[in-house]
Amino acid sequence: MCLYPRHRHSLHCILPPHLSREIVRNGSKEQRERVLRTQAVDNTLRAMRLARSGLARMGAQFQPGPIMVAGQKLRTIFDMKNSQEFPGLMARSEGQANSSDVCINEAYEGLGATYDMYQEVFSRNSIDGQGMPLHAHVHYGHDYDNAFWDGERMVLGDGDGDIFNRFTIAVDVIGHELAHGVTEHEGPLTYFVQAGALNESLSDVFGSLVKQHLLKQKADEADWLIGQGLFTKNVEGQALRSMKAPGTAYDDNVLGKDPQPARMRDYVHTWDDNGGVHINSGIPNRAFYLVATQLGGYAWERAGHIWYETLRDPRLKPNATFLSFARLTVLSAARLFGSGSDEEKVVRDAWSQVDIRVSRERVGEPLWGPGVQPPPQQSGQQPPAQ
Q1: Range scoring the smallest mean pLDDT among 9-13, 32-36, 267-271, 281-285
Q2: Where would I find the Peptidase M4 domain in this sequence (predicted)?
Q3: Pair 98, 119 in one domain
Q4: Which residues are catalytic?
Q5: 348 Cα distance to chain centroid
């Protein structure tokens, strides 16, 4: 019997449910109405996606997509013109000049920054590794306070101008949502309890790497915020989440206080939000921040490679726990940089700092079992220089 819902095709939204609940609890009449409309749309889209995935399992045939070209960006931006009927009007395609619409340009640049990071750092051809065209749909709905990845496209609302700015404003939000596509193709991680929090954390990690890679920031220069710029000046807060200091991103009369824990001792046990996937992701987020900053340099050079290879590890199970994921990151560090290397020690120490201890005995177990082949890189081999 399956103990975990599969959620391979979940609708992944950037706005955590606990924020919506706080707005309903503390906001004005207009603010409550807006967030309830957004929630109604999200729930409908989830139901539609679940129905589509059911048809796919029953063998429904779909029309083939565009021809994919290896190593080439294929971006298309659609203007929804405040409608909810896809696809909207094609507003900009690959190679076309800037639009007069800032949202169209930000979405185009965000897709490009995401593609470039995966291609240049990990030699990955788009989010599926096979040249998948990237589509974004902007100006979705009226006062829509969210952005989401639905397995096929990136969808971004304009915000309400009261609590939230336009959702194209933050490149790491776009990188975060598209990273859910990477996890779906490599994993997936079940979108429930600790596996779901790892799913969310991986999207924060790679979303942050997209931003840092675009800005050419070293780990000690980055702000390590997710969604910086999304809040209007009416909000007492700097972003949706802080990877550096989970629990400190905002403290506002309407939104409440950031509930993310930074250590396992403060893990939040809840059935809300699929077992707290947007809340408890703060724990692995901080572990990655600690690894990246302690190793120094650009975060994608070593820390990013360790996390990426862990995501690709065939031993990563759909119902992975924080501890099992941590063990795999230590093994990845040993394989990429050598057993006993500084990288391996830093990774183990970072997890210890968030109350997750990886014993040396478990790390010393054989890396590969019968019938399981390792990824291409060999023990001790450095990742390609970037």
Answers
A1: 9-13
A2: 101-184
A3: yes
A4: 177, 278
A5: 23
How far out from the chain centre does Cα 161 lie? 24
pLDDT in tens, 82-134: 999 999 999 999 999 999 999 999 999 999 999 999 999 999 999 999 999 99
Tokens (6 digits) for 219? 């780990």
139 within some domain: yes
Sheet of 89-93: strands edge to edge? 12-13, 147-149, 154-156, 134-138, 75-79, 89-93
| 154 and 252 in a common domain | no
Extract the tokens encoding 229: 């710029």
What's the CATH number where 74 sits?
3.10.170.10
pTM: 0.85
> Are 273 and 309 in the same domain?
yes
Gap between the terminal Cα atoms of the chain = 46
Q: Does any domain span residue 383? A: no
**175 and 282 housed in the same domain:** no
Distance CA 92, CA 75 (A): 8
- DSSP code string of 169-185: S-HHHHHHHHHHHHHHH
The strand pairing partners of 76, in sequence order, are 93, 135
Q: CA torsion, points 89, 94, 95, 98, in degrees to nearest 10?
A: 40
Report the C-alpha gap between 234 and 278 in whole angstroms: 23
Residue 358 neighbours by CB under 8 Å, 6+ apart = 323, 326, 327, 330, 348, 351, 352
Per DSSP, the chain holds a count of helices (H) and strands (E) of: 11, 10
Place of tokens 């082949």: 373
Q: Tally the domains of the chain.
A: 2
What whole-number distance in Å separates Cα of residue 148 and Cα of residue 162? 20
For residue 87, is the peptide bond before it cis, meaning its omega torsion is within 30 degrees of 0? yes
- What residue numbers bound the domain in which 318 lies? 194-363
Do residue 127 and residue 259 come from a single domain?
no
Phi, psi torsion values for 155, nearest 5 degrees: -125, 130
